[in-house]
Amino acid sequence: MSKGTATNAGLYMLLSVPAQPLEDVSMDFVMGLPQTQRGNDSIYVVVDRFSNMVHFIPCKKTTDAIRVAQQYFCEVVYAVIPKGPLDLIPLPNRSKVHSKAANFVNGLQEIHQAVYDHLTEANAKYKQAADKKHCSVEFEVGDFVWAILTKERYPAGEYNKLSARKIGPVEVIEKINSNAYRLKLPSHIRTADVFNVKHLIPYTGDSSDEDDSRVNSLHPWENDVNMEVLRKMGKYTGITYQVAIPMGGSNDLPITKQPPVAAQVLIGTPGTMKKWMSAKKLSAVYIKILVFDEADHMLDEVMVFDI
User: Fold this and answer.
1) Domain end: 131, 166, 192, which one?
2) N-to-C CA span, the chain
3) Residue 125, by phi and psi: left (phi above 0), alpha (psi -120 to 50) or beta?
4) How far is 8 from 235, CA to CA, in rounded Å?
5) Which positions fall inside the Tf2-1-like SH3-like domain (predicted)?
6) Does residue 208 fall inside a structural domain?
């Protein structure tokens, strides 16, 4: 999880199965096509989830919502263009129904029921197969989590290899469903505040700490990039490194149970460094170079005593 990739958290959530045609449809537009003799340059696509029937309706890029609604009812619902108001009214309700018509309707209802049962069974099998590779992870309002920032969450032109991959801890302020949560993001993070559970990692520390957790939540560190650079340098130079920043994972050992720091390069925040030194896991006797990154932000975040 150090590189900010998605987890296998979250079970597959089924969509409701429609019981008859046109009960649930999806719509989209294919635009930018060569113009036809009638001036159409786009295709209005309607897909029925029940029957998987697809309707391709020629239209124009400038077609407004009213015209789109008219095309939907004329080309999809009624399948023919009505010539007048009488074509849209239902047939009169008679006390006697023709036997052939009744048989046709009953047969159609049986087909619809068979299709519904088949879709329900297929969805259940798909969910069973999908859930084998996932686990159930749920959060409650008030919990703190690490949030993974994927490339798609950055505004156009702002993403680069040095961008933060993971921020936190951030608070869960709303549980939309078992797979979607609304987070209280810092003001400088310009992205949607709703995250899928696969992009959330439980935070196991104390949310009230004023050490590195607080700094990370407001000013994300580039730990992944730093570690990657040091790893490549160490491959050819023999430089050893260690990260003294708790990432909130379930496998992180307490500082008191970790071995003393023997690496040549140590990456950490003032609060964490202080804890390591207090636990006698880090000695400042052999420190030759000390670098403070974004020290002004640390002062803003009442870290002056740790610095």
Assistant:
1) 131
2) 29
3) alpha
4) 31
5) 142-203
6) no
* Of 237, 299, 246, residue with least CA distance to 265: 237
Q: Which of 131, 159, 184 is the last residue in one of the domains?
A: 131
DSSP bridge partners of 180: 177, 196
**Pair (266, 182) in one structural domain:** no
Domain that holds residue 126: 25-131
Asked if residue 194 belongs to a domain, the reply is: yes
pLDDT digit string (tens) for the chain, length 307 residues: 444 567 788 888 888 899 888 889 999 999 999 999 999 999 999 999 998 899 999 999 999 999 999 999 888 887 655 556 655 566 555 566 667 777 888 888 888 899 999 999 999 999 999 888 888 888 999 999 989 888 888 777 776 665 667 787 889 999 999 899 999 988 778 888 999 999 998 887 644 343 443 334 333 344 555 666 777 777 777 777 676 654 444 445 677 777 777 777 877 767 777 777 888 878 777 677 777 666 665 555 545 555 5
Tokens linked to 89: 């009214």
Q: Which two tokens stand for residue 185?
A: 């993001």
Q: What span, in angstroms and rounded, lies between the C-alpha atoms of 123 and 129?
A: 10
How many CA atoms does the CB half-sphere of 52 hold within 13 Å?
3
DSSP 85: G
Q: Are residues 195 and 293 in the same domain?
A: no
Token digits of residue 230? 């040091």
Verify that 117 and 162 share a domain, yes or no. no
H-helix segments, the chain: 65-72, 99-131, 212-218, 223-237, 270-278, 295-300
Q: What is the pTM of this model?
A: 0.51
